């Protein structure tokens, strides 16, 4: 049975210990790891420059997670484009190495992150 760690804020330190052990021979510019959300395998991309976790509305539908509330923030992309997210989710369960942690996430349409 997986252990759930609280509080819900995912930090680089919590995830890095799992990610650094995986795919040591793969050359990439992004730090990522193989994880699961509600039993669905995903590649979790880690962005140390991001203030929030981002997830697509289509993925949430696939795993059966609902948006908790509208979002009050704006996402600003690398080219200074601004997009208003669809909403926010309080707890997305992310399982790595038999441990489950939860994360708050901003919900966007797939493909429109600036």
Distance between the termini: 38 Å
The level of helicity is 10-25%
Coarse morphology: globular
Number of strands: 8
CATH topology: Cathepsin D, subunit A, domain 1
Low-confidence stretches: 1-7
Strand % is 35-45%
Number of helical segments with 4 or more residues = 2
CATH class identity: Mainly Beta
The named CATH superfamily:
Acid Proteases
Average pLDDT works out at: 77
Radius of gyration, rounded?
Answer: 14 Å
The domain tally reads: 1
Please summarize the sheet with the most strands. Answer: 6 strands, mixed
Q: From N to C, what is the helix and strand string?
A: EHEEEHEEEE
Which architecture would the CATH scheme give at its second level?
A: Beta Barrel
Supply the helix-strand structural class. mainly beta
Short overview:
The protein is mainly beta and 114 residues long. It has helices at residues 12-19, 57-63, and strands at 3-5, 31-37, 40-46, 54-56, 75-76, 82-83, 87-96, 99-108. 13% of the residues lie in helices and 39% in strands.
Write up this protein.
InterPro entries: Peptidase_aspartic_dom_sf (IPR021109). It comes from Gigaspora rosea. Pfam families: Asp_protease_2. By secondary structure, this protein is mainly beta. The chain has one domain (3-108): Cathepsin D, subunit A, domain 1 (Beta Barrel). 13% of the residues lie in helices and 39% in strands. It has 2 helices and 8 strands; from the N terminus they run βαβββαββββ. The chain has helices spanning 12-19, 57-63, and strands spanning 3-5, 31-37, 40-46, 54-56, 75-76, 82-83, 87-96, 99-108. Strands 1, 2, 3, 4, 7 and 8 form a 6-stranded mixed beta sheet that branches. It has a two-stranded antiparallel ribbon with strand order 5-6. Strand 2 and strand 3 (40-46) form a beta hairpin. The longest helix has 8 residues, at 12-19. It is globular and about 40 Å long. 15% of the residues are buried.
